Description:
Chain A is mainly alpha-helical. Chain A has helices spanning 5-20, 29-53. Chain A is elongated.
Amino acid sequence: MKLSRRTWFFLGIAAVCALMIPLTPRSFRLLNLGMVILATFWAVLLAIESATRGGGGHA
Amino acid sequence: MSLGIALIVGVALTFDFFNGFHDAANSIATVVSTRVLSPRQAVVWAAFFNFAAFLVFGTAVANTIATDVVVQSVFDNAVILAGLLGAIAWDMITWWFGLPTSSSHALVGAMSGAAVAKAGWGSLIASGFQKIVVFIVLSPLLGVLLGFTIMVSVYWIFHRNRRVDRLNRGFRRMQLVSAAAFSLGHGANDAQKTMGVVLALLIANGRLPVGAGVPLWVVLSAHTAIGLGTLFGGWRIVHTMGARITKLTPVGGMSAELAAAVTLFFTAHAGIPVSTTHTITGAIVGVGTTQRLTAVRWGIAGRVVWAWVLTIPCAFALSYLAYLPFRIGR
């Protein structure tokens, strides 16, 4: 299955947020984790969308 | 108050004015580009809510600037003046080139540069810097995620509604509310940075004890200065933010402003000095991404990113240089 560019975009955001967790002060790590979850959620939905539409190379 | 302190307070308020002039245009870019308000109306709207922010938010960001970035004992009149001059110089340079950079990060970089010029690298507080640097990355990403989420939610809620004209009218009205919310967040976050500088100045001169709160006259004068700066706002940056990053509809403008406002409310409450420019840019990109990635003009967004990367080092270098005459004079 070929993932759309938007899927990669949100996966990239999730990865950056995950990498930032150790650097983030403890009191804000929950926010960081929430951002990883939200970005992954959108990446998964966009991957499903591009798979069900059968395309996915563009946009 | 001595003449020296009054002079530096005047320079700090000038920085605040230029902050409004330079950054506050972001608050009105989306309402202007979607033609919800004329530029003149939008400027007055944003300036009013910039000022009104003092009624809603505390002074957590001001305390962070005054106590968490540079070791308190390093602050003196020369360090603060050199820091302000470096930040103003960087703001003017980027304004001239139409780059939407962060006045907040310019101030943090500039204060650090002057402090290092006086007392070396040990004058910086690593944990304070860590918080600010982490949110340089996180705040635009939070803007992207919230912008995308709000926009998709709005589509999802209203997708069965066929009365497009009526919906558009509703979103145009809502954009007045979201623009006001964003201006409140902007006023809270950015005016507080100047308050932080003035607070550090007053503590350094023994006018206030360490750990004191921000006096009301400082709060009111900082909000007045940023409000006036917004009234005289910079149109070069409005153009970059509002039209060149992506094409916005009223619903998109509302979603972007709401996303940025939520981010700014959170950071103002948590005492994190973030860039309003970063936040609204991220939110606009998030909204544009709901169409397709190519709806975002990445060349412009990339230029903005470069300006962000350069801000702290360049403001640092400018204020380091601005402090050198004081060091020679000692």
